[in-house]
Amino acid sequence: MPQLRLALAQVNPCVGDLAGNADLVVEWSRKAVEAGAHLVVFPEMVLTGYPVEDLALRESFAAASRQALVELARRLDDAGAGGVPVFVGYLDRDERGMRNAAAVLHGGEVVARQFKHHLPNYGVFDERRYFTPGDTLDVVRLHGLEIGMVICEDLWQDGGPIAALGAAGVDLVVSPNASPYERNKDDLRLPLVARRAAEAKAPLAYVNTVGGQDELVFDGDTIVVGADGELLTRAPQFVEHLVVLDLDLPGGASREAGEFEGFEVRRLVISEDPLPAYDPLPAPQAAEPLSDEAEVWHALVTGLRDYVHKNGFRSVVLGLSGGIDSAVVAALAVDALGADSVHCVSMPSVYSSDHSKSDAHDLAQRTGLHYSVQPIADMVKVFVDQLGLTGLAEENVQARCRGIALMGLSNQHGHLVLATGNKSELAVGYSTIYGDAVGGFAPIKDVLKTLVWDLARWRNAQAEKLGEQPPIPENSISKPPSAELRPGQVDTDSLPDYDLLDSLLDDYVEGDKGYHDLIEMGFDHELVDRVLRMVDKAEYKRRQYPPGTKITLKAFGRDRRLPITNGWREG
Amino acid sequence: MPQLRLALAQVNPCVGDLAGNADLVVEWSRKAVEAGAHLVVFPEMVLTGYPVEDLALRESFAAASRQALVELARRLDDAGAGGVPVFVGYLDRDERGMRNAAAVLHGGEVVARQFKHHLPNYGVFDERRYFTPGDTLDVVRLHGLEIGMVICEDLWQDGGPIAALGAAGVDLVVSPNASPYERNKDDLRLPLVARRAAEAKAPLAYVNTVGGQDELVFDGDTIVVGADGELLTRAPQFVEHLVVLDLDLPGGASREAGEFEGFEVRRLVISEDPLPAYDPLPAPQAAEPLSDEAEVWHALVTGLRDYVHKNGFRSVVLGLSGGIDSAVVAALAVDALGADSVHCVSMPSVYSSDHSKSDAHDLAQRTGLHYSVQPIADMVKVFVDQLGLTGLAEENVQARCRGIALMGLSNQHGHLVLATGNKSELAVGYSTIYGDAVGGFAPIKDVLKTLVWDLARWRNAQAEKLGEQPPIPENSISKPPSAELRPGQVDTDSLPDYDLLDSLLDDYVEGDKGYHDLIEMGFDHELVDRVLRMVDKAEYKRRQYPPGTKITLKAFGRDRRLPITNGWREG
């Protein structure tokens, strides 16, 4: 049977950085050629990064992307990678509009290009705002084998390009993707890819982006299946990785061009002669998907690291209260950036307990991060006395003095401030705007409180398994949560128990259940009424919250768009 | 010729407030019936408000909207308005998905319903995210006349529903709209409405929403034209208004049902018999469109007033620096809410000039708003000394102490904080996050600095024309702008002259010109380089800025969506 050595480059581009992303393509193509690959596939829009959002509407950006593609073809040739076709996603523009495109670069030239047909426009996706759908499929002939391509959503939707390739005939399908990580998605990808291979009647190679881009994180999870749906290999999640795999292809697919299932299928010839037989490499072992907590932890670490580095920061600063949220954020930051890049400040007020200070200090010692103490009593006193503040106004001033102090240290020393709020707080508005909400990035913004605890326990257990010091003090995990903004305050003064709250939030926010559904599911009607009002009222606070890595379907941010002025109340 | 008395209700609904919006429809329908109208038309999605954004995805909200429509039909009948058909926009859902819909209510029942066909998905619009397009047109027969309907974008796009109604035959077209105000749109609506009337071969009544909804403001500008395109009447902008107009219709349109231009045209009979001849009312005079500055001023006042009131606030607080931005925001707030609802605080630092304090005091005396002085020197000193802050870190602490003070007063007294930043500052990031950017609403967020000055001069001139005290001190208009965060500082230390900066921003942001275009237009290349870098770098600040009324095509906010992590640099 005809052989072919496939290289799939699971890489981490940065949106807009055409020069850096082109370097990435050259570097990984060279590695692929050194490994003897016969073709190399990169993720969707790797040259521009994904999602480019309204950059897609700038004529100058589209022109630069087209230009960068032509230059990349030449550079690949100069770098000794001109002899193998390289599949590269980019932003194109023609007389019908902007295009989510992928090209085949070979011999210093752009030899084929294809535009995405199915444009997702739900959740985080806005592609109908930007792109015009394509209806042409460029199948390239390589060593006598017919190689077809489908871009991301074209794989997820029934019919369309996959059906057309199946009808027209191909020996292999490659699929560049930028498919964000999402918790509890279960393993949707493998069965999907297997089904589409069967529909295309050919092996299918799914290549995904890896890395963080603002609120999105891409987990990689590149997959190759045979025509029968059998898993041939799978890349590890959350790391850049080059899959190199020898395929035995049956070959002999039809070479007919023309219209199939409403698409114009074109046939482009790179090389006709089959490869002489060679000894294949041992098949790379398929990576095991990570456990739920491991997956979330890696997603948060990846999102945080890339946000910090891609925005040109080298270090972060955060307030360490001794509580679970800031402890987990500090541990994430140490895993993402190294202890020497993490600066923590304990900022006790007159209401802070002794254990707040000792637990914060304990965490600093366990992890080796930079630690200092800045009491806020003097700052708070001036505001409270001069303005005559009492009650909630006095509580909030404490959180805001901490926010100012962190921003002062950020401005003075160049650290990015991390906000430590979790999704449960943010959902019900249990946070102080311009106070604990201060920061450039909020690593656990999309993590419900009960999951924050689970992650802390998981991270400590992992450390124990490896014979390392668990980073998070046991007392930070086990004590009752408190904002400590007045004497003896605990979260349950204002909120239901977190088990109950999170369960309700999950059904209301993720599940889109209505008031009556929630009552029917057994939640107490007063609780439902109270929590739903809190969630609806807090929309304005969430709008001004910093970005944070998204791990669920409905994070607060760009994939949940609600009015602030809103007279709608469930129930 | 057959007569018909048309009532067009240019009203101000609130998104989500189904009960309040239903009350509005009943109240204005009753007025229309009292005026002897034979049919009443309300704006697009009046029952839910517009835009509902992701509320459209909540099953419970769609169900409540459908239920509210049925109840509204009954209530109209009970209120004595059951005898005239009332056209009401709402959110519908059927087996094919969510629908941007409008119904005809008559005799206590929903007698016709139609779904929007063209779904806008550019700028502020996201309708392809939410709605399924309709392809059926319900033409109702009223007193023997054929009345067709097109919803908003169906009027703006060539072909489609208007062409279908023209082919099928109608005696009158009504069009419910929610079309946001936009500066420099010139007068696009009247020629468009006139052209569509010609295509439909019938008079056309365009009814628009009025009022503010988060960042959008709707100006009304309801228009009626004859079949020949002649303007019959036009409602005033930015106020609720009932247009009552007698039409002489030729009648005799074809009554054929079936498929026209790809749409299924249905014919529904409310009443066959022509009205007996009656004495028409004198035709209402067409309102003159407002001048440019007047239009912007009214848009900002309307947006501010509705944001405050629809979110349940009664009063606002803002920092008064003596400079032009806070002076204009204070004057807008007084016009929107009345002087007794506006609380201003002068917060001098050690670097504040004498004129800062005297100009702020002067404005307070001119307008009669509440005024107090809170020096910030003691607050600033604690942070600077304890944390060892210098340079930019020290400058920012001053702005942040002011922000905390305003939020303290807001929490203590229940005022909404207004941020006073303008679009030029926000564009280049010349503002302090958690400092002068603090606030629940930013009235001049979309107003370039040069326009802030123009508006101040216009508002003062208006006052003089009316023999009133001009609200804005001349010195606030004429002195060079300064943040006063260090001795002798003026804006031009850090920024180009505002005339030049605004002209460049207008071409870069509104005009989407690229680096090379701007050089070709004659801008200095160092200036272009510097300003474009500032704009690109400030994206993260703009994301955390409060909402503010949008008056241009590309305000910073939901209609300009850019990545924060972004390696793209023009040029």
Question: Which consecutive residue ranges of chain A, at least 5 long each, have pLDDT under 50?
Answer: none
Count of distinct strands of chain A? 20
Query: Could you give me the name of the CATH homologous superfamily of the largest domain in chain A?
Result: Carbon-nitrogen hydrolase
What does the average pLDDT of chain A come to? 96
Strand content of chain A: 15-25%
- Helix proportion range of chain A: 25-40%
CATH topology of the largest domain in chain A: Nitrilase/N-carbamoyl-D-aminoacid amidohydrolase
Computed Rg of chain A? 26 Å
Structural class of chain A: alpha/beta
Largest sheet of chain A: 8 strands, mixed
CATH architecture of the largest domain in chain A: 4-Layer Sandwich
Q: Please, how many domains of chain A? A: 2
Oligomeric composition of the shown chains: homodimer
Number of helices of chain A: 18
Largest interface: A-B, 85 and 85 residues
Strand order of the largest sheet of chain A: 13-12-9-8-7-6-16-15
Inertia-based shape of chain A = elongated
Q: Please report the first level of CATH classification, the CATH class of the largest domain in chain A.
A: Alpha Beta
**Ends apart, CA distance between termini of chain A:** 65 Å
Region (Disordered) (chains A, B): 464-494
Enzyme class (chains A, B): ligase
Pfam families (chains A, B): CN_hydrolase, NAD_synthase
Organism (chains A, B): Saccharothrix variisporea
